[in-house]
Amino acid sequence: MKSVFAIFNESEETGLLKETIAQEFNINVITSFNDLNDTSLNEADIALIDQDISQPPVRDIVKRILEASYLPVILLANSDNAIGAIDAIRDGAYNYLIKTKDCHQIINLVIKDAINKSSEKAQMRQTIVDLKKRVAELEGKLSKAGTKDTTVSSAKNTQGGIIDDVVDSLKRGEINLPSLPKIGIEFKKLMDKGGDFQEVADLLKQDMAISSKLISVSNSAYYRGMTPNRTTEQAVGRLGLNLTRQYVDAIFNRSLYATSNKKYVEVIERLWKHAFSCAFSCQCVTEALDLTLRDDAFSIGLFHDIGKLFLIQIISEMETKGKFSEEVDMEDLINTLSAHHGSFGSSLLKRWGFSEQCVQAARYCDDIKAADPISKELIVVHFSNVLVGTMGYDFEDPEKIDLESLESTHLLGLDSSAISEIRNKVKGYMEGELIDCL
Known about the structure:
The chain is mainly α and 438 residues long. The chain has two domains: 3-111, Response regulator (Rossmann fold); 182-437, Hypothetical protein af1432 (Orthogonal Bundle). It contains 19 helices and five strands. Helix 3 (58-68) links the parallel strand 3 and strand 4 (73-77). Helix 12 (265-289) runs antiparallel to helix 13 and helix 12 packs across helix 19.
């Protein structure tokens, strides 16, 4: 549970705020600036300051907190003193909330937003720290080798240098964010509102590529009937709406895995197989444990690593246009993807209108302990992500990992027998004809 540090005056108003905050967070309240210490700040994830604190001036308190920590600071401002709130933001406060009789109803949403945004900034700060360490290592190696004046160019394409260039290009509008195909957006809206068989078939018939692939899937060994399907209506009827949604998502997803840069074709192809195998694993886990999820497990698994694809495509385009001083090293690329795909992927899925569960899975699929709360969807994706990686379905070489020791394995209650069964099912899917239909 995240922790809130607050400097409040004693009042009925702040009492209600404390009660509301305590429902979702740990809260430590002091009523005097004199009680402020570094230990309290180190244990917190966010700081709240009541503008009615008498001494010292609120701006001094904000500066003191920001000097001692990286905490996001939210000011609880009076409606008649907006200028003071704006001054606090200029001094570095994250935001302010006007104190009204109903402000307790949104205080926790404001806190969550600030903590999430702060977490993303903390990751960027850590990237800078890692980059400095990497530069120091390079300087040490070059010094021993007697090499001079090459440190800057050698360090340019470490993960910090690459990601900085990517962010700069996005800010300048030199690189466009990818978007779902128009029919993909319409399909998602139709399924979300509960479209029926005929509505779904009528929409999919507008795209011959999707229709033909869906018909191929329905005629595969997994779903083949007495007679082959020849129309979209027949395919949707045989698969059902749930499987239709999964495979249409897979077809859309597959179309995104493309690049004109031959250097990255193999990496992107392996990344696609990782996404597809993870989706199957998520489905197998859900079925094996009879889990009820708020979103489709297959689709969440399919999009969990979309941030890696997004970054590869951007880096590929930038490299083709000569935006880097030298060719991007594959090891630096992998380090960059590992460090930043969560924040980029979750931002992209938010932009596309995906569910909160899907966004969280993309954000924390590699670091489940950083999530709060940990959703069932994230637990399933975390386990599946690691499982298929150990099977060789990843763009990196498989690692030897004890799956039974994973946190997600314990949370799911999976034993060695269940893990083995899921692994075999995923292997069957990936080695069968179904993947070739997409």
